[in-house]
Design brief:
- By secondary structure, the protein is of the alpha+beta class.
- The protein is built from nine helices and six strands, in the order αβααββαβααααββα.
- The protein has a six-stranded antiparallel beta sheet with strand order 4-1-3-2-5-6, with helices on both faces.
- It starts with a helix and ends with a helix.
- The structure holds guanosine-5'-diphosphate (GDP) and magnesium ion.
- Magnesium ion is lined by residues 34-35, 38, 81.
- Residues 34-39, 42, 47-49, 51-52, 55, 80-81 line the site of guanosine-5'-diphosphate.
């Protein structure tokens, strides 16, 4: 009886048809985690509009959990309600897509919920969706980051414009229509007349925040030893600028060094 029933069930693992979907070996990739229904959540939290530093801190602190849990990403780029986690050569779960997406999304979600309690003193269940983006070369990595940063800049402008137009008494539907019809320069001009210089807002709001591990030398008994510290960069250059490219190259180089040890 027992034998026949185990026979009956033995094929079930074959129904796990996505469990053997892998990211190709040695290929760098990003995991992008995006807050689920965060517009609604930010309203429930009464988060400061259009940007709330506590909101950003909650995201950054959640991203840092990945380092604490031993995932060792090369960097995490945080913008708006998303985290872009880059894995260079070392990747978790033998590159299994189901595992990476589900474990990272649940870790970030539970960390973020706990952080809301810490920073806002509020209890909420939260969720993040997760997807994988293959970026096979250093050039592609740079391009992906530049894309997310441009997206962040566009979101930043729209968020400020939305907030100002609401203050001016426009209805949400009217604002959406208005924003679609406006060129960037026109939007800047209108905002400027309302007292907001979109080029002078805090840098993290325009360009996002970067998290990475940086080496430093620590004095030991006879000789200095290399130690690693998780850094938060809140004043980022443009990833398309020389300074931005240099920063990313440096971080990638550190990650490679770290792997050699
Ligand atoms: N008030 C406020 N809202 C924010 C902040 N950061 C992100 N958000 C909200 O999060 C949303 C993120 O965009 P998106 O992922 O497209 O919206 P979702 O589908 O509702 O998660 C933004 O539209 C904002 O409404 C913040 O610092 N302050
Ligand atoms: Mg979202």
């Amino acid at each position: 009886m027992q034998e026949s029933s185990s026979n009956k069930y033995k094929n079930w693992s074959k129904h796990e048809i996505f469990s053997r979907t892998y990211i190709p070996p040695e290929t760098p990739f990003f995991v992008r985690l995006d807050g689920w229904k965060f517009r609604k959540l930010s309203e429930t939290l009464k988060a400061e509009k259009p940007f709330d530093k506590k909101f950003a801190k909650s995201l950054v602190s959640s991203g840092k959990i990945l380092f604490k849990k031993g995932f060792n990403p090369a960097l995490i780029y945080v913008a708006s309600d998303e985290l872009n986690v880059l894995f260079l050569n070392a990747a978790p779960f033998r590159r299994r897509i189901e595992k990476i997406n589900s474990v990272l999304a649940s870790l970030i979600s539970s960390a973020f919920s706990l952080n809301l309690q810490k920073f806002f003193n509020e209890k909420h269940v939260t969720a993040f969706d997760s997807r994988i983006i293959v970026a096979s070369t250093e050039e592609k990595i740079m391009e992906y980051l530049a894309w997310r940063q441009i997206n962040s800049w566009r979101n930043h402008n729209n968020a400020y414009a939305y907030w100002i137009f609401r203050k001016m008494g426009y209805k949400p539907a009217e604002i959406s229509k208005k924003l679609k019809g406006l060129k960037t320069e026109e939007l800047h001009e209108i905002m400027f007349r309302q007292g907001v210089n979109l080029a002078k807002t805090p840098q993290w709001q325009r360009r996002g925040i970067l998290i990475y591990k940086q080496p430093f030398l620590k004095k030991a008994k006879n000789h200095p030893v290399t130690r690693w510290k998780v850094e938060e960069h809140w004043k980022l250059p443009l990833f398309t600028s020389r300074e931005g490219v240099k920063l990313i190259q440096q971080i990638l180089e550190w990650t490679r060094q770290k792997r050699k040890k």
